[in-house]
C-alpha cells in the first residue's frame, strides 16, 4: 500500500512565509471507500427482497383463481418481508451503536438474564432442528452496560450457532470468569468456518456462503453488531472454528467488580 499526501499551502499572514502542510490522504480515502462499499452493499441487500416481493405480487395476481398457489406465494411474500424487517432492524442497531444516537447510561446487567433472554429467542428454531440448547457455568455475575445491546449480541451468536448447525447437534452457552473478565462462550457442532474467512466474518455483510446465509434469514450484519457492542463495553469477541467440527465464539466483558470498572458516562469505552 502506498501512502499519498495532499499538500496544503497556507500563507502565514504578513510574514511573506508560507507553511506547507502534508496531509495523509490514505486513511481518508480508505474510510471513504469503506463508506461507499457499505452503501452499495445496503442497496444490493435491499434490492433483493424488494425485487422478489415485486415479482411475487405480479405472480399472485395472475394466480387469483388458484387458492393453493395464492397461499404459497403469500407465504413467500411474508418470508421476504420478514427478511427486509430484519435487515432494517440490524441497520438501525448498527447506526445506533456507531454513534448516531447517544447511548443510555450504563447500568448493572445480570449475565444470567442476558443468557436466558438470548436462549429464549432461539428455542423455537432449535426445536425445529432438534438442536439441544444447554447453558451452564458460573451464575450471579454482573457487567456494566446496556442490557438490550448485550442481549442482541449474545442472541446473534446463538442464532448463528443454530443456523449453521445440522439437526441433532448441541449448542452450549457457558459462563466463566478469567481474571477480571466475564466470559460467555457459545459452542456449536456445526459446519465451522474456513480459516481464510475467520478474520473477515466480523465485517459488515461478509458471509462465507451468501446463499446459505440468506436461506437461513441472515443479514450479514450479525457479527458486525456483536463486535461493535463488545467495543462499546470495553470487551471483545473471539472465535475458534474448525470446518466440519464446529465453532466457538467467546464474549469477554469486564466484571462489575473488576479493579478498573468501565467509565460511567457516554460511550462505555471510556
Ligand atoms: P449472517 O446474517 O450471514 O449469519 P453474520 O455477520 O452473523 O451474518 O455472520 C457472518 C458469516 O459468518 C455468516 O454468513 C457465516 O458464513 C459465518 N458464521 C457466523 N457464525 C457461524 C457459526 N456459528 N458457524 C458457522 N459459520 C458461522
Automatic annotation (TrEMBL):
Q: A GO BP term, please?
A: cellular response to phosphate starvation
Task: Establish whether keyword Membrane is in the entry.
Answer: yes
Give start and end of each Histidine kinase domain. 41-257
Q: What class of enzyme is it?
A: transferase
Compartmental location: Cell membrane
Q: Please, which domain of life does this record's source organism belong to?
A: Bacteria
GO cellular component terms, semicolon-separated: plasma membrane
Which residue ranges are recorded for the region named Disordered? 249-270
Here the segments flagged for biased composition (Polar residues) are 264-270
Q: Which UniProt keywords apply?
A: ATP-binding, Cell membrane, Kinase, Membrane, Nucleotide-binding, Phosphoprotein, Transferase, Two-component regulatory system
Tell me the GO molecular function terms.
ATP binding; phosphoprotein phosphatase activity; phosphorelay sensor kinase activity
Q: What is this protein called?
A: Sensor-like histidine kinase SenX3
Can you name the source organism? Thermobifida cellulosilytica TB100
Q: What is the lineage of its organism?
A: Bacteria, Bacillati, Actinomycetota, Actinomycetes, Streptosporangiales
Span within the parent record: 119 to 388 of 391
